Inverse folding.
């Protein structure tokens, strides 16, 4: 911890020298540089925190309005304790507003709720999605090209959640039982040298054959999600179900996933009529987001300009 603190102090001193010269009108910082706000403040420069990833709004909204409940909810969304501390520090040091990667179209009530709790204006900045330039997995797109429209499912649990051995087993068997095409991104913690074949059920890859593809670590997510052959994806389940563009795989009372439930939900989204409803709602929501996207971008600019004028 002392080594980490020393590194932050060194970075802070170096940054102070950098800021002195151009004297910017505004500083935007993320989770990794909470100390940057203090440096900016010493030079009378407004500093704004921008969350670089999706915010756990539903989890926060389900808690009561006390501050300690908010802290508990925020803590539960981050795996690493040190990262928790930096998250809260970065948010608390932000000048009046906080920029967060989301849409008001989807999460308006959560944005308003959080604004009251943290006593700062929460400003959505949209998805900030960039097209991937890495062609390392171009064969995956070619594989999708051969599949029927909306016939494949994309499975990814994000970059910060690692499935246990039991969860990998259940997801694998669920995908096998569903009998639909799938792309599954499997990630292991840094430093753990595990072969995918060893983590999966015996002969799983042989049984699913051409119906499934498994990627380790990185995937061209944006390309996969917008491909016409992709018919579903388990991502931020509670939120997408609430807005009607997905169905959540419900865990049991002990928080465990079960293969039968996974297969059932996949069937509803990709095979049954429920899938057509979900895709129609997703298409409608996409159009709303497209229309509102430019408005939100203009709103962010206006907020930052006003902040600079107040100094």
């Amino acid at each position: 911890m002392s080594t980490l603190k020393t590194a932050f102090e060194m970075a802070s001193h170096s940054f102070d020298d950098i800021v002195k010269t151009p004297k910017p009108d505004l500083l935007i910082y993320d989770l990794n540089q909470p100390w940057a706000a203090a440096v900016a403040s010493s030079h009378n420069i407004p500093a704004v925190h921008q969350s670089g990833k999706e915010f756990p709004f539903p989890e926060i909204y389900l808690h009561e309005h006390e501050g300690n409940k908010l802290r508990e909810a925020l803590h539960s969304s981050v795996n690493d304790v040190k990262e928790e501390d930096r998250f809260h520090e970065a948010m608390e040091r932000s000048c009046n507003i906080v920029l967060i990667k989301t849409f008001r179209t989807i999460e308006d009530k959560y944005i308003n709720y959080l604004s009251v709790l943290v006593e700062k204006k929460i400003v959505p900045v949209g998805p900030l999605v960039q097209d991937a330039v890495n062609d390392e997995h171009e064969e995956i797109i070619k594989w999708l090209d051969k599949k029927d429209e909306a016939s494949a499912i994309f499975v990814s649990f994000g970059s910060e959640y690692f499935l246990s051995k039991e969860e990998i087993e259940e997801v694998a068997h669920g995908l096998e039982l569903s009998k639909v095409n799938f792309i599954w991104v499997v990630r292991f913690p840094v430093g753990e040298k595990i072969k995918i074949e060893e983590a999966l059920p015996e002969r799983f890859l042989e049984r699913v054959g051409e119906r499934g593809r498994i990627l380790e670590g990185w995937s061209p997510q944006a390309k996969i999600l917008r491909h016409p052959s992709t018919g579903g994806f388990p991502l931020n389940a509670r939120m997408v179900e609430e807005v009607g563009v997905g169905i959540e795989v419900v865990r049991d009372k002990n928080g465990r996933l079960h293969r039968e439930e996974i297969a059932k939900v996949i069937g509803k989204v990709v095979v049954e009529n429920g899938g057509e409803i979900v895709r129609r709602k997703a298409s409608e929501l996409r159009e709303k987001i497209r229309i509102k996207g430019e408005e939100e971008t203009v709103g962010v600019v206006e907020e930052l300009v006003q902040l600079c004028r107040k100094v």
